């Protein structure tokens, strides 16, 4: 399906590059804000830790994260994708839909015409009764009135035919939509689930890889070592020790956000497990 073409290219490249040397319990979606926070802080303390390799790793997770966010937003509404992407890619359906819309426009014009003819006929009928003595050529006037009546009847007949044809085309379109909807949604959700897994696994791997490189590089920085000492961080600094530092300094207002609080608890539990290994 063309809708997923770009996503498939991306995950194929990055998912196939995943190695086995990373903690599979690590979740990038949980640690993303802590990694970005630490990366920004360390950059402010010492820009020299950002060598070409570390910058490339950061660009990778930023690119993957942006593309995954875009993927999630685009795939949240499968019915919209079905309507705007799948159905509009079916030539027969599009042709039928085009004829349906043309008929709708024609019907609206016929209804407007019939309303105008009704108004004209009623005016002429009142004039023929109330102002008969003012009509110089009654035969010609009566002939014109009959002509208007015939045109109105013909228009009403055409309106009926258009409505009937519209109903038939509507049924044809709806039947096509209903027949393919279930099959499409099943296929769509299967592809979405597979790509979601591959995106998240790629983000977990490359996020973990960047995280390890970031904290490893930070150990060589005297400025970051000074920060570590001032922050009371013992031993080599790593993501979990940074999370501990963050928790000690987090402001109460930050915990009012339910999602943020939940990620903090998951991060803490992960670090507790890691510390016990």
Structure overview:
- With 277 residues, the protein is mainly alpha-helical.
- Helices cover 80% and strands 0% of the residues.
- It has 9 helices and no strands.
- The chain has helices at residues 5-15, 28-45, 52-74, 78-86, 91-130, 138-218, 222-231, 239-249, 258-276.
- The longest helix is centred in the middle third of the chain and has 81 residues, at 138-218.
- The chain is elongated and about 110 Å long.
- The two termini are 45 Å apart.
- The model has no long low-confidence stretch (mean pLDDT 88).
Summed up:
The protein is mainly alpha-helical and 277 residues long. It has helices at 5-15, 28-45, 52-74, 78-86, 91-130, 138-218, 222-231, 239-249, 258-276. The protein is built from nine helices and no strands.
What would you report as the Rg, rounded to the nearest angstrom? 35 Å
Give the proportion of residues in helices. Answer: over 70%
Main sheet attributes: strand count, strand direction, barrel closure: none
Order of helices and strands: HHHHHHHHH
What is the averaged pLDDT score? 88
Distance between the termini: 45 Å
Total number of beta strands: 0
Q: Strand-residue fraction?
A: under 5%
Helical/strand content category: mainly alpha
**Low-confidence parts:** none
Distinct helical segment count: 9
Q: What gross morphology would you assign?
A: elongated
């Amino acid at each position: 399906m063309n809708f997923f073409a770009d996503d498939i290219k991306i995950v194929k490249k990055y998912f196939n590059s995943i190695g086995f040397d990373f903690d599979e319990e690590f979740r990038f979606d949980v640690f993303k804000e802590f990694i970005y926070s630490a990366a920004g802080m360390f950059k402010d303390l010492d820009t020299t830790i950002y060598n070409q390799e570390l910058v490339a790793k950061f660009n990778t997770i930023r690119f993957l994260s942006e593309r995954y966010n875009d993927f999630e937003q685009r795939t949240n509404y499968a019915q919209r994708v079905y309507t705007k992407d799948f159905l509009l890619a079916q030539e027969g359906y599009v042709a039928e839909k085009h004829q349906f819309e043309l008929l709708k426009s024609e019907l609206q014009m016929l209804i407007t015409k019939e309303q105008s003819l009704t108004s004209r006929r009623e005016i002429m009928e009142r004039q023929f009764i109330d102002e008969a003595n003012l009509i110089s050529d009654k035969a010609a006037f009566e002939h014109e009135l009959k002509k208007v009546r015939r045109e109105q009847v013909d228009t009403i007949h055409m309106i009926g035919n258009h409505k009937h044809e519209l109903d038939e085309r509507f049924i044809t379109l709806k039947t096509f939509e209903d027949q393919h909807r279930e099959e499409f949604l099943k296929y769509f959700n299967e592809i979405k689930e597979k790509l979601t897994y591959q995106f998240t696994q790629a983000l977990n791997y490359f996020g973990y890889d960047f995280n390890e490189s970031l904290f490893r590089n930070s150990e060589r920085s005297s400025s970051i070592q000074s920060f570590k000492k001032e922050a009371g961080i013992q031993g080599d600094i790593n993501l979990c020790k940074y999370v501990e530092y963050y928790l000690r300094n987090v402001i109460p207002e930050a915990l009012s956000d339910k999602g943020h609080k939940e990620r903090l608890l998951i991060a803490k539990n992960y670090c507790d497990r890691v510390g016990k290994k």
